[in-house]
Amino acid sequence: MSDVFSSLVGQVGVVNALRRYAEQPSHAYLFTGPPGAGKLEAAVAFAAALECPDHGCGTCDECTRVLRGSHPDVSIVARAGVQWSVDEIREAERVARRRPLHQGHQILILPSIELSTNAAPALLKTLEEPPRRTIFILLADELPEHLVTIESRCVEVNFHSLSTEDILLVLEREGVPAVQARTSAEASAGNLDRARLLANDPQLADRLAAWRRLPEMLTSNSPASLATSTLAALEGAVEPLKARHAEELDQFKTEAEGPGRRRVGGVKEVELRHQREQRRFRTDELRFGLAALTRTYRERMISSLEGVADGDARGRTDARSAIACIEAIASSSDALSLNANESLLLTNLFTQLSRL
Ligand SMILES: [Zn+2]
């Protein structure tokens, strides 16, 4: 079936549900799931399906306008600061009360609604007294406590992380060359936004090659020195993100100090968000490296087992040692989610690997 949802990848359950909801819409939806899972793309497609007389044919005037971002009754509401402000939610409510210009609904899409600690009561009030022809689509990467009541007023739609193959499909469709697309997809941790960032990162292939070479390097270098060089490469990888954050912070400060501007959220909050994003980037990057390392050992294991079949006596021992290495990497990867010290973690892992 070719319709407005056809271009969404990897969310079959979500798409089936949205096709059903489009025929008998409710007044508020909450799309939840990890960053880069395609929530915004899905929200726009859903909005088109809601406006379309055929529930999302993908070709009529209503569908085309929504997908192009030029439908007068569909708004993606943006916020200025780190958090949604009460004023911004009130402004959204004002738009929500407008009569739709076309035959369909007045639709408001609000991204990152988890960032609404102070504005949540205003948002809740809006959802409790919904104008008849208005539909809210709220998006959230996570569900903090202040969203629980809001959640109970919405139909919830859960997104999961995309698979490597799904992301590869999107990148290739967007014209990223095959090898770069494959590497970026594998390094993306199921996050399409990260994959798009990596697809434009010229150093990615070098970092991947360094991880793949590591077992060989361990025979002639100390684990501590390899941990140091791996961390230096990680610093290099996070550099573009840091530069972007520095720019964003400068702009935020200028805007907050400008005449007639009201401060929306503090500098401290921006810095905290940046720290969170950088930490997430580092963890994803290390996970990607460990996955590449695992692949190297898996290849070793397979070729050792082939050796056994050919009568090589050492093959069995080599395969066993490769399996032990894969297990050691897996437990380091688990430890990453517990905020382990990166330097210590890598030194320990590399020491183990050099002994196995
Ligand atoms: Zn249509």
UniProtKB/TrEMBL annotation:
Q: Which GO terms describe its biological process?
A: DNA-templated DNA replication
Gene3D superfamilies membership:
P-loop containing nucleotide triphosphate hydrolases (3.40.50.300)
Record-linked InterPro entries: DNA_Rep/Repair_Clamp_Loader, P-loop_NTPase
Please report the name of this protein according to its UniProt entry: Unannotated protein
Its lineage opens with: unclassified sequences, metagenomes, ecological metagenomes
